[in-house]
């Protein structure tokens, strides 16, 4: 990311605290003008958190368009952002394949023997049809280190034995080598899965039959189901079988929520396993939806009181230039120095998003005239073809009589 130093530093601090598990149940508000990178900042935080922390992203308006109540939609979003790490003990056989013999009987059935060893012991196993198929599928050969899950019979190849490395000089770079394990061949191993609370909810509440799973239409989930699951998970935690991983719920355009949703948020943030809630808004002092009161960012004061606020500021000319440059590289568009400068100027005067759009259009114009790179004239052409918000408003003011439904004193400024 470019610029936005203090906002990024603050975001970095929050990511660190989340990773250390210090701020579950807190909320952060990212406030700033449109196009100042609020959404981009939240996405960057999601990446920095990595795969093991659940991250859910919704837009404030989504709550109203789903076929369920607002609070149900919010509850689901919350539960998607809380992960459960479940530990399981699995019986496995792990070792290096010494020998693998497969005999084909005339009847068609296959029978075989496999010798496995660790540094300390060696055992010969009789293997049946099913195991044989799994071994063939994984292309297991003598000299491989393999792991077999005893309950499911799943075979996984961990790599080639180091001791065989010399024999396979010609095997290329993609071969992975592994150490021959020591100790017993059979052992118990701890496996860890991470699932979200919402996934557990859905699996346990298939009231409409399994077809609902294909439709992706999970509908509302009964509160009894959730309560049962909460109790079960609390038990697992006490027994040390499961661990709660509070993730992050990102609510973009949070001013679109109404007063009922805000009250729900307040309460949900207080519950034991609440994720960190990150919200973004581009509103100043405005109406709180569903009420007749105004407040900063359109959020009720009792919610604002719980938040820490990160603010983003408009970009400077140089920063806009750099962002546009990154963007053009990503879109495989070649911009001449001059056209980049013009685009950056346009970005500074109108908006970053408008300038970004123009890159794509200018590239099309350039391709049509079979040019090698976008030049000043291409940008000028698309600038006259497509209006930005300000010029469009000017135009509206000038010709308002000729439009349908035009109110002369209407305030067209989008803030
Ligand atoms: N610091 C940045 N570095 C790179 N790209 C950025 C940066 N800030 C914003 N952008 C880009 O600008 C556009 C608008 O940013 P966005 O995060 O959607 O704004 P907001 O959510 O504040 O309205 C996005 O395409 C985003 O990728
Ligand atoms: Mg945004």
TrEMBL record:
GO biological process, one term: DNA repair
Reactions catalysed according to its record: ATP + H2O = ADP + phosphate + H(+)
Domain called AAA+ ATPase: residue spans: 24-301
UniProt keyword annotations, A-Z: ATP-binding, DNA damage, DNA repair, Helicase, Hydrolase, Nucleotide-binding, Nucleus, Transcription, Transcription regulation
Stored SUPFAM superfamilies: P-loop containing nucleoside triphosphate hydrolases
Enzyme class: hydrolase
Record family assignment: Belongs to the RuvB family.
GO cellular component assignments: nucleus
Protein EC: 3.6.4.12
Listed name of the protein: RuvB-like helicase
GO MF term set: ATP binding; DNA helicase activity; hydrolase activity
Cellular compartments annotated: Nucleus
């Amino acid at each position: 990311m470019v610029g936005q130093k203090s906002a990024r530093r603050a975001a970095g601090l929050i990511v660190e605290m989340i990773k250390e598990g210090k701020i579950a149940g807190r909320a952060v508000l990212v406030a700033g003008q449109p196009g100042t990178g609020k959404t981009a900042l939240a996405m960057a935080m999601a990446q920095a958190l990595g795969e093991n922390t659940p991250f859910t992203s919704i837009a404030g308006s989504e709550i109203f368009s789903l076929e369920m109540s607002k609070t149900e939609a919010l509850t689901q979003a919350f539960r998607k952002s809380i992960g459960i790490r479940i530990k399981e003990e699995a019986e496995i056989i792990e070792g290096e394949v010494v020998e693998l013999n497969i005999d084909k009987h005339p009847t068609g059935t296959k029978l075989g023997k496999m010798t496995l060893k660790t540094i300390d012991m060696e055992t010969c196993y009789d293997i049946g049809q099913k195991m044989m198929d799994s071994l063939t599928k994984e292309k297991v050969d003598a000299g491989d280190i393999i792991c077999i899950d005893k309950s499911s019979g799943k075979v996984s190849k961990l790599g080639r034995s180091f001791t065989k490395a010399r024999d396979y000089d010609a095997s290329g770079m993609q071969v992975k080598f592994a150490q021959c394990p020591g100790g017993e061949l059979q052992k118990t191993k701890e496996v860890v899965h991470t699932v979200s609370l919402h996934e557990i909810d859905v699996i346990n509440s298939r009231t409409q039959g399994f077809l609902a799973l294909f439709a992706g239409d999970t509908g509302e989930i009964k509160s009894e189901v959730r309560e049962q699951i909460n109790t079960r998970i609390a038990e697992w935690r006490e027994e040390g079988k499961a661990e709660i991983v509070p993730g992050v719920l990102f609510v973009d355009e949070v001013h679109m929520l109404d007063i009922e949703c805000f009250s729900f948020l307040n309460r949900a943030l207080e519950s034991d396993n609440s994720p960190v809630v990150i919200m973004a808004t581009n509103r100043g002092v405005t109406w709180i939806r569903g009420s007749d009161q105004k407040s900063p960012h359109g959020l009720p004061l009792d919610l604002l009181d719980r938040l820490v606020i990160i603010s983003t500021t408009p970009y400077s000319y140089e920063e806009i230039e750099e962002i546009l440059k990154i963007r053009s590289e990503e879109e495989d568009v070649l911009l001449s120095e001059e056209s980049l400068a013009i685009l950056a100027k346009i970005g500074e005067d109108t908006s970053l998003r408008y300038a970004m759009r123009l890159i794509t259009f200018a590239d099309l114009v350039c391709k049509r005239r079979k040019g090698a790179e976008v030049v000043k004239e291409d940008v000028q052409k698309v600038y006259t073809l497509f209006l930005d918000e300000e010029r469009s408003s000017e135009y509206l003011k000038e010709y308002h009589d000729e439009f349908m439904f035009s109110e002369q004193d209407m305030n067209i400024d989008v803030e």
